[in-house]
Structure formats: structure tokens, C-alpha cells
Design goal:
Length: 271
Amino acid sequence: MERRYREAVSSIFDRRAEGDLRALAEACGFRADAIIADFRVHKAAHRTAQISPGRAGDLERRWYASLESGAPDYSVYSDPFYLVDIWLCWTLYSRKGLLDLANPKSLETRSVIDYFGAVGAVLDLGCGFGYTTAGLKELFPKAQVTGTNLRDSFQFAIAAQLGLEFHFSLVERYERGPVIDVLVASEYFEHFSNPIEHAYEVLKVARPRHLVIANGFNGRAIGHFDAYTHRGTAYPAARMSKMFSEALRVLGYHKVKTKIWNNRPAIWSRS
């Protein structure tokens, strides 16, 4: 990837080793050895499409059991072993998805970043520890980059500190600001029981020209739902991906054909 960031700061894309996970766990006050051991178990199970027999897997089982009881257990997001799942997403998916945007062949003869043109403002929804937000600042060094996350999450303080290092801002929700050129949502909308309505709210405020979205409504994971609602009606998760795409088309977006594997992330542009 072309380095388009000041040399004084090491690339966030290089932070994917167990030592980096240890630093995160220790910064959160968690038992780093236990987190690393469980990450190894979780990653191995993920490769075989199995629920981890470890602590992160226990969180997933607890979450879906709470859905069956009709009372979603949102405390799973505060559990130290949720860090294991976040780290897996970064090292296997989010990191690669951002690098694919810079691939000079992601759009046949040019990169997605080149296709976007001049970018002045970028919004990263549900940014976790801020790694994707820092990555976006590397990819768009001249842009105002903002990440969102819940202030009471154990990741917020870490992301805020990373924002000082990589020069991006962090807010709990994006309520006002410049029109967004690129909005990024990686494994974000699946965590809302009414994702289409939530998307309507966000897009109304941000008014983005381009969307970078990696949805996984069909996948089972901590915080995902078996069924989602739209306009008061429940739909199975398997139907939501198509419904979500149709909702974006209704709002005037069209899907851009890319060479990115499996369209993750998918690129949408406003017509």
C-alpha cells in the first residue's frame, strides 16, 4: 500500500500481532494472557466456522440465549472477552477491507480511493478501538476523519488516545458537521434491531456521497439478531441484506462494481 501519512507515525495497518493485542488488553485493565489465549481458540474455531469453545464463544451463546428469552443481554459488549471478537474482526476483515480500497486494481484500472476523488470528510461508524478510523486517516490524510462509539464502552478511551496519535476525532454520535464524502460502516448495522431505520437516520444527517459497507446480516456473531424489524414488521436475518440494499437504492445510491473479493466491503455512490 502506498504510504500517504507522515513517517513519524507507524502505520496502524502494522498493528496486528499478539503484542498489539496484549497492549490493548493491558490498557483496558484486562488479563492479557487470558485474552491472548482465548483469541487463539476463537481464531481457530472461526476458521472452521464453529462457535469458539472459549470465553468469546460463551459470550456468543449467552447473547443468542438472551434473544430467545426476548431480553437482549447488551452486557456482552462490556465483557473483557468481547475484545477477542473485536480483534478478530480487525485482523481478518476490517484491516484487509481498508487496504483493498487502496488496491490499484480494485476498480479494474484504478483504486476505489482514486474513484472517490477529493475527500474532505470521512465518518467511521462504530469504530471500536479506532483502528479502522486511524486507517482511514492514513488513506485520506487531508480529510477530516471522525469515528463514533459509545462513550461508556471500554474502547472509547483507547480510541480517543489513538485519535490524538493519528489525528482523527471521536464522538458518541454524529449529529452535526460537514457533509460526509465517505461513510464507512464495517459490521455496524447488524447490531441494531432496526438497521434500515437507523441507516435512514444516519444518512439524513451525514448526507454522504459514497458508502463503504461490510454487512453480515446472515452471519451469527455477538450482537447480531436472528430477526430484524422494518416499519414494525419482523424479518428473518437472511432477508435483511437484500432489504438493506434495496433501501439504499431507494435513497438514491447505486452499487459500484469492484474487484474486491465477495464485495466486502461493498461500495455505494449517490446517483
